[in-house]
Amino acid sequence: MDHVIASGENVNIFVFDTEVYSNTGGQASKSTPTGAVAQFAAAGKAVKKKSLAQIAMAYDYVYVAQVAMGSNFQQTLNAILEAESYDGPSIVIAYSPCINHGIRIGMGKSIEQMKNAVDAGYWNTFRYDPRLREAGKNPLTLDSKAPSASYNDFIMGEVRYSSLARAFPDRAKDLFAAAEKEAADRYELLVKQKEMFEPK
Questions:
Q1: What gap in Å lies between CA 128 and CA 191, rounded to an integer?
Q2: Do 138 and 191 contact (CB within 8 A), yes or no?
Q3: Domains in the chain: how many in total?
Q4: Which of 13, 50, 110, 158 is most buried, judged by most C-beta within 10 A?
């Protein structure tokens, strides 16, 4: 996918980010967050998730958005429309609850779980549109606010995290603390980038 967006061609990509290799049984991947249990990461993944959005934004000529439909339907629609109208590569990354997450409220409430993820700062929503920079405007729109709910309460609502706390409580404590800090750092980076992109 990196080669596709680097080509500069007018191609639209929509990523359903389940944070595992869902189509082959839920194995850990580079998209799996710190502390999550998955196949080949039974004791929780020890390294942080890569940021596909930050990689794409580094090109400066790629439209990039992160969305969570359950958190903000309009923001998701805006991102899709903007990506479609952009004359160049675009990528929209959607937070996608998965059966492998073991959501305690059930997959039937995945829309609610998306909102919970954003409220807890687990997932950030934003849009990066290079056209705005060319027009002398800030290209980065940070749509999600600072966290307003407990990060720990959110992850404990999914078996992929709560099972680690039961099986390896000490390791879970350390990994979850690291994961929460990584989430805070991701949001802080977006805030700093928004300030940096502000036209002088």
A1: 13
A2: no
A3: 1
A4: 158
